Amino acid sequence: MNNIRNVIHNSTDQLPQYARTRSGIEYEVLSDLWSFRDGTCQFRIDFRLVPILASPLVIGLKLTLIWYLEHRAAKSAENYFVCFIRFLRNIETDQKIPITRITPEHIISFKMISNSSEFTLSQMSGFLKKWVNLNSPGIDKNVAILLGQLKLKQNPVGVAVATLNPQTGPLTDLEFENIQCALVDSYANGQIDDEKFLLAFLFIALGARPVQLASLKLCDLLTPQENQDKSEYALMVPRAKQREQLSRDEHKVRILAYQLGEPLHRYVNSVYTQFANKLSDPWHAPMFPQRKQLQFANATGFEFHRAAGSLSAIIVTVFKKLGVKSERLNGPIPVAPIRFRRTFATRAAEEGLPLLVIAEMMDHTDTRHVEVYSGLTSRIRARLSRAIAMHMAPIAQAFSGHIIKSEAEAIRPNASSRIVDLRVDQSGGGIGSCSSHAFCGFAKPIACYSCNSFEPWLDGPHETMLDYLLERRDYLNKTTDPRIASINDRSILGCAQVILRCREIKKNC
User: In Å, how far are 165, 196, 200, 234 from 317, measured between CA atoms?
Assistant: First the structure.
């Protein structure tokens, strides 16, 4: 039996000696180990993991993987290989003779093992179909027909988010705040350096994938002078996981708060100095460079870049040392980049952003993978505060009326159009005017703030009105249901928008 692998290894007429990945990395096909750096990802496939009895399948397996490496991301090929090894190890247990080809019987047998095996089969279904379409040896053509007929269960998506898993799901507000405070304190005390501090906050602020931050170069940071609006720092974040695109083929501009952009700018300048004599253009140096084992950081176009997995390991290590406590666990918060990404999307949903907007922020091409967050938006109903209302008001654009300086500027400057509320102004002073001549059955002045006929007065008691609305909302939230309490949220946001506009008008007067 030990001679089987040697016989197959020598029967390689159908295999080229060398092949290239989509990004141009050359590798030796005949080797038992395919290991190389592709961009910011470390790729590794070890064909010695193929069970002895399944050795006759290696040639067809390699030919199919070659196609994926030429036309898809290297990580996709690696993931298919992992699934296929799992498949082989299960079907090999029932075999006493060499497996010369994958048959429909193997597929059915594997599917029936468990839900997990069905999920694996669903993942590699496309790979097996491609194997058949390529006419590569080692698979029965009827496998593709069978897979086309089967309705395979897919691995559930978004379970950690939907269940608010305390180990892997989005962070709670308290956990999120504790993590940021711990980061700031440890940085101030010199426990972590600039690189780790800024890397962690970029994950928090952007919800980016590790491969995106691993692809960053110094030139991707735009200062206020370089940014189009001339006022804010911005980061050109490379897109990732987009089919037929490499890591730096396309970017998305992400605005950075000054508190993050300014220290990041100083850090970028320090990295530039370090690479002044190492690269012809130091601005193309990696933002988070690899400083050890440089022989593994030589991918074309990504010289000195860390691998995506390395950045993830840094985050895990940093927070493991910080040991930030969780109110949901009897111990420290398990922290990894994926949790920051899930928290980023959850908080966006809680702020009422549409799924299309969340998908764009998460760098998804559709809303399929962010739909799970829509079920979490009720959280904001329970905690809409003045600060959140003032922040969301410019985005919501709930107020569509026209601000006037006084009643004299109203379209209908008379007492019948005057809007008064003794709950906020017992003197009977007006809040604004109504320009409509039609009958209105809505409760004024609450409904007025989201009405296009409303003409709020510049010096009206809008601040007091906002306080009243928020207090009323808090009372309803405690005594009734969050959904009832949120009925007037649009009016609250409209009132907040009126306040912001009035402040701006007064400032410019």
Answer: 21, 10, 11, 28
